[in-house]
Protein 1
Amino acid sequence: MPPHPDTWLRVLPQGLFCEPGDFYIDPQAGVHRAVVSHGHSDHARPDQAAVLGTPETLAIMTARLGEGRAGRTQQPLTYGHSIEQNGVRITLVPAGHVLGSAQVVLEWQGSRVVVSGDYKRQPDPTCEPFQPVACDVFVTEATFALPVFQHPPAQAEMKRLLESVALFPERAHLVGCYALGKCQRLIAELRRAGYERPIYLHGAQASMCALYERFGIGLGALLPVPRPAKRGETVLAGEIVLAPPSAESNPWSRRLADPVTAVASGWMRVRQRAKARGVELPLVVSDHADWPDLLDTIEEVGAPEVWVTHGREDALIYALAQRGVRGRALHLLGREEDEVEADVAEAVQAEAAGA
Amino acid sequence: MSLPAFADLLERLIFTPGRNAKLALLRRWFATQPDPDRGIGLAAIAGELSFTLAKPSIIRELAAGRTDPELLAMSHDYVGDLAETVALIWPEADPRPNRPPPDLSEVVETLELAAKADIPRIMADWLDVLDAGGRLALIKLVTGGLRVGVSARLARQALADWAKTPVEEIEEVWHGIPVPYRPLFDWLEGRAERPDPKDVPVFRPPMLAQPLETADIAALDHTAYRAEWKWDGVRVQVSAGPGGARLWSRTGEDYSAAFPEIMDSLDFHAVLDGELLVMREGEVAPFADLQQRLNRKVVGPKMLREYPAGLRLYDMLFDGTEDLRPLPFDTRRERLEAWFARVKPRAMDLSPQVAFVSLDQLSALRDGARAAGIEGLMLKRGDSPYVAGRPKGLWWKWKRVPLSVDAVLMYAQRGHGKRSSTYSDYTFGLWRQDENGGRELVPVGKAYSGYTDQELVWLDRWIRNHTTGRFGPVREVEKELVLEVVFDAAQLSGRHKSGVAMRFPRISRLRQDKPAAEADLLETLMAMVENRPEA
Ligand SMILES: [Zn+2]
Ligand SMILES: [Zn+2]
């Protein structure tokens, strides 16, 4: 009988550790060997000795963390290919979350665990779609694990944004979004909706867009936000500007013409949350699975046991129990509950650097 | 597709802080929606629709029947608002039933005719064909929880802008036309004459005064003017006649339900202009007392006993059906006095005229009047007709010189709309002895006006560079900057930590020259309080 996954995968302070393979998955601190699911800062930490990830994720890490801090050695592994590490077979499978995001499939002595990282099931023109893999234990996030979270189609939200742009031609539209993933997905969805004008970017967003384009994701005309010609003037009336969340509260935003502040995030589904942030146009666009997609995915992979890394594990484990699936909360530290807030620190740094 | 369109409108209105943006959203609604739905939507936003049978408990039970109770409880806990929780959690049928979502008119008509027992089924059928936004709009609409930050007055302003018609003309007929306002839209779109409100009480836009600045005083011929005290209450209009009676604020908000003692006395036929005040044996109570009454929609007997409201009259617009507004002020005053002597209305008195022989004398009177309830003086031209709006040179308000203290800036908050990137709301404090013999700052008020644009820029930068803590949108700052704050009155208040409330505080000067330690003491402000209990 194959060994139960809890005999060879453990939760240590640094994160999830594969004992026979001697490596961590998405560790929270620098370790000797790390497999990284995707490039977001709560999964891809600096100063790993050796890093394994998709070529896209490794490139994103280098861009975000800098040449010297994105793993002393980087080992690329493309989707669908496998390597063996001390007898543990590692395969990276698309997670549909952001460019290069992968589920880490681990097999040892006939037992299979899928560590899904962050994932979503909605279509996204900027990354490969999620592929379900049957397994004995499915390790999942639970960011939006409450039945109130049901993300509408992204195109419907783009329609709302474009209607607002048409209604307020004298105002700029400032859309706050995570610089990695959300930003590029919004641009691609706007292009799909037929929006062909240049899209303006805060400095923090531009470098990641350039990286996406290097990987063949076309985003159309992108321009930096210009400075007003004269003091006191404003720019970009009638245009769409993408910036890190909370940029609207920085003096930087004063150059924009009476901006409509929008934020694109799954949290925008709940009004109190949107109101508390002072958002004028909340857009419900998320790169995480919503409640129905979490449940459907778990059913599809057919795992009798599910481990929950972070988020609303109580609701998810409760719902799984009713379906006869054993749930276990891993209480992993350091995961960002709020995809919007996660970006603020980076944005502030970018601003300080004169972006 | 009208309920989803209405849901979109609500969604945008709720999140839009700017007045102009709200007006634009409403104009688009009037321009694009068909009758009768645009009128029903207008009524819903203006607070003139209500349903009695669809209670929040029905919504709770419906949701409980469709979802797991534990998950519903967790979700309610997270979201906070029940209507929103139900709207978000309602399981969407896949595929969605092949029925169109209801029109607003269908919702209104169906619920008016429905038997109580049928309402849960009717609601469920609608919820099944709507998306989350539509479900929330429906639930809020029928359970009466629409709070979109749009006053009836703003809705009428949008109507006026859209139809390019003065808002005063709309206000004169508004209260006489039932929902969905077909005759109103027919008139505004040029298909019919202006509707005639007949006997139904309608709001008459009031005549407003301009502030009297020092520069205007020299040019004033004082013999042409009459003087009255300017009362620190709320300007209202009463309209009574065979078609009913109403009490309105000066923006046309209906206060009738909140002031039954006034409504009880409206058994005459006239339209009157006056000040709503809390009065005890003819003595005007401070504004804070009136606020107790204004804050609630329904009043109990205790409130009525402890905060009795009255009306101090100063003008008469209609006597019976006769329109007095074209007559000179002096003539209207005579008519008002004669009418008052004849009718002797309960809960009302006349605002006396103040005799004077020179402006100097009047100025002295004004500054001497520190009694609670007096804000200054009103000057009205004896020959002025009653003109809606703020005509120049006919009526002046002459506020007494404001009080002032030097306070220390303690907290700052970002504003809304255009000011959302600027720290423009300031909480300031004064010194007081603490238990250990040291001194502490106590917050005494909040101001978000009075400064110039340059001062605002300076303050914003200063705040960003002197922040010591952050709580959401609020920054705590180093206690170093002194602000000169002016205000109209100081009143004792149990609701403020300092025990005192300031009326209309605003920043008059930045005192970068003054060390914070030399700012005023709380006692200084206390000494300015008007409603001290007699010792
Ligand atoms: Zn992520
Ligand atoms: Zn994450």
Protein 2
Amino acid sequence: MKILVCISNVPDTTTKITFSLDGKAFNTAGVQFVINPYDEYALTRAIELKEAQGGSVTVLNVGEADTEPNIRKALAIGADDAIRVNLKPTDAFLVSQQIAHYAQEGGYDLILMGRESIDYNGFQVHGMVGELLGIPTIAPAIKLDVNGSTATLEREIEGGKEIIEASLPLVVSAQQPMAEPRIPNMRGIMTARTKPLKVVEPVGQDAKTSVQNYELPPAKSGVKMIDAENAGDLIKLLRNEAKVL
Amino acid sequence: MSVLVVIECANGEVKKSSLEAASYGSKVAAALGTSATAVAIGDVQANALASLGEQGITKVLLDNDSRLHDFVAAAYVKVISKAAESENSSVIVLSNSNIGAAIGSRLAVKLGASLATNVVALPQINGSSFTVRRGVFSGKALSDVELSSDKKIIAVKKNAVDIETTAGGTATVENFSADLADADFATAPKETIRQSGDILLTEADLVVSGGRGLKGPENWHLIEDLAKTLGAATACSKPVADVGWRPHHEHVGQTGITVSPNLYIAVGISGAIQHLAGVNSSKVIVVINKDPEAPFFKAADYGIVGDATEIVPKLIEAAKALDK
Ligand SMILES: Cc1cc2nc3c(=O)[nH]c(=O)nc-3n(C[C@H](O)[C@H](O)[C@H](O)COP(=O)(O)OP(=O)(O)OC[C@H]3O[C@@H](n4cnc5c(N)ncnc54)[C@H](O)[C@@H]3O)c2cc1C
Ligand SMILES: Cc1cc2nc3c(=O)[nH]c(=O)nc-3n(C[C@H](O)[C@H](O)[C@H](O)COP(=O)(O)OP(=O)(O)OC[C@H]3O[C@@H](n4cnc5c(N)ncnc54)[C@H](O)[C@@H]3O)c2cc1C
């Protein structure tokens, strides 16, 4: 089985987000970038499937050269090879076009992604790639098994879950608890250095959205403390002052 | 030109998030000098749809093919794109749910449309420029995005826009069919497992959430009783789900579910940045924690310092005393 895992390069979850004074750009100075946490579930599950059933795992990132440390990290965790599409990912459709093109070229059975990219929170690349390739997308999946050319998945729905069987090829987006993310070991880190990382040029330039500016949400006005002895007063405040009950 | 609103239904009723989408869609239609039509799929009766007129919808297209009761992306996309075609829709509004995002993303490719998800405010329309404000960086920031294609798809974040109601408004309901084939249902669920009786976390106005400070699942009755008394949904922090005290679908935060209720009550949760990312667009946040230095107090509107096992019973008692 040939598996493609798409990873996005995002600010570490503890990052304090700030923007340039004109609000046009995200300040990346001092920011640590990581593999998108949801993509780690996808990557780990892909590696588990390969270990159990054979095949290969390729990671793909649409990004500029500064994403390579995290691509190498994915190789250290256990992917076999990697593709970087040399393009600043400024629009979800543009990113999806790249993924769909190289996915088609490689003839993968399974295209795994994360539920959403935690920087831009689009929650859409998996659907776009599925539509571009004319194959189904199951998102978000909390469980994935493959038997021959059939995948069995659990999808989270509001207030429950569904069990779905679908034929490959398929796009799947991963959500916890699909797999327990792995930390690269020393051997992984050593071998990652020599695994192939191919840099390819982008196809098309069809951005359909553009960010005009960023802003931080208004700050909270401060917390009102209620004495533990009179905890019940909170309920009255929530009704009469905050008007939420 | 028209605005098309996608209506999600559950248990015979229109979901609250779809009422928000309907209100939003009607206002966009008014700004564009056109009308708003809705397309409804799923388990719902015509009379529940007629009252969408109260949100300014003039006409509802209803596809009541029973195979559509479960969500199947390919089939839903076919119905909605056919509706968009027959209504000549230039703007499609849906809610930013798993279903809305799955439909929106496929539809955007199919129609060559610009898509914005997680949208929190009405668009700014200025001549040919059309921008929307959306949440980015997992609730830590907002961004204005220009949608440059002729067709635009907007997925509205839950509880971010008001539902406006004009009493007595009625929409006409028309049956609609997209002539679906069996192949459109290739990924239909084989089985659906629902937690019965619970309030849906993602749709809830009120949420009571517990963290590691509760010490173990044996204390969860505190969270459940408070939630039940208030009519709230229950949630938890990530480590609580990781150790299995609670199911994973209750885990909120950066790597779990994002909620934006009117009220979020956090009990025994420290307020790590990854947790806040999933809850910081709640309108009012209450924090109950025995440590006065817990970071969550900085993000809260109301706080109580104390032991959960002592505070929560007092809250339950006070909530029971409220006249409904
Ligand atoms: C400061 C900043 C500004 C940005 N501005 C924009 C913007 O204005 N518009 C915009 O669309 N994007 C922007 N991005 C890029 C964004 O991070 C994505 O790379 C891409 O746009 C898709 O984002 P999404 O949130 O829609 O992805 P989602 O649909 O949420 O992602 C789902 C999955 O798709 C895969 N995926 C997403 N992006 C990539 C990628 N680049 N390479 C490989 N796989 C990927 C991952 O598996 C991910 O889990 C910005 C990023 C940063 C850091
Ligand atoms: C990549 C990544 C992603 C993550 N994603 C998420 C996420 O999506 N969601 C999430 O929640 N976390 C997430 N985390 C974990 C996060 O960093 C915190 O570890 C987690 O939120 C802490 O959970 P907690 O507040 O329940 O536990 P703790 O941090 O242990 O806090 C327990 C709190 O309970 C208080 N307490 C103890 N006893 C009592 C008592 N008797 N009465 C009242 N209060 C009491 C303590 O003072 C303390 O403040 C993520 C971490 C990483 C690295």
